[in-house]
Amino acid sequence: MEMLRSEPNFERGFRHLMSQYRERLYWHIRRLVLVHEDADDVLQNTFIKVYRGVLQFEGKSKLYTWLYRIATNEALSYLQSKARHASDSFDESTSSLSNRLKADDWFDGDEIQVKLQKAIAELPEKQRIVFNLRYYEEMPYEEMSTILATSTGALKASFHHAVKKVEAAFRES
Amino acid sequence: MNKHESLEEELKALSPLLREQKRRPTDMQVPPGYFEHFEDAVFSRMEAEGATRPALTAHPGGLLRHMPKPRMWAAAAAVVAIAATSWWMLRPGTNAPIPTETYAETLTEEEIEAYVLENITEFDSEQLAAVEPMPAQELPEAISGSYPDDNAAKAVDDISPEEMENLIQQMSEEELESLL
Q1: Domains parsed from chain A with CATH numbers
Q2: Least buried of A63, A167, B92, B153, by fewest C-beta within 10 Å?
């Protein structure tokens, strides 16, 4: 942050910030949007937003918490705008999701893994975020609590419900 | 217990099926070199979109927040001191500037002349040269006329023979020669 506050070092500081957080944020976004091309778009949007607003960052929360929030919002907005453009039918949109996953050159999962991704995609928005943060990123509840501004108890309950729903959907399919 | 072990324990109790799935190799990849070239891609896109660089003072209080406390108080004290001094100097009724015309009216001609003579070096020679010469009839008698010829002769007539002799004695040979 110190580098970002000095005019001549701003670009170097921003490059450093990106190199520190790009991978963590990428995987967070990728697990929400699933396809690499979309994740790349969203990650770039996230860092452009950060670039424009980093000097307004008040330091009340940790930098990575702030970055996670921006990345999450960007990913959800992206999905919402994609959903608006896609078919109104939920079934069609989820089947299109599996088609898109299969078409993604950077997804090499088998049929079982496609089914798992479909089951996760059917979760309500907040549960999906909690599930991904815990299941894939192995984030402790305390850390998640600061990012999502939710109590650890509520997050544990949310993860519990999500796991049960994913397992049920997975078994059904 | 680390993060991974903590999740393993939780999944063991919640869903052995998902725990098993988690152990499988990751199903998502990224293109080779993607992360290495990511920063350049972002900067190229921002350049193409004309993204503006944020102003360093964009956040009100941002710089003050990062300033050490003693410095912050010193800066605040300096601002208060400047404001108070400015108010004191510019307060109504004191040191109000006198309009130029009024000020000029309070000076006598002698004072103006003395000022000009004392500060003659301050005047721009080009400005002085640009001043129109006064008509001869408006000049004071002492400096009008066909100076030096007529008045010099008059002045010499006023000197007594004794004074003239003293003056001649004080002059050098070269000075006398140049006069003759």
Answers
A1: 1-88 (1.10.1740.10), 109-173 (1.10.10.10)
A2: B92
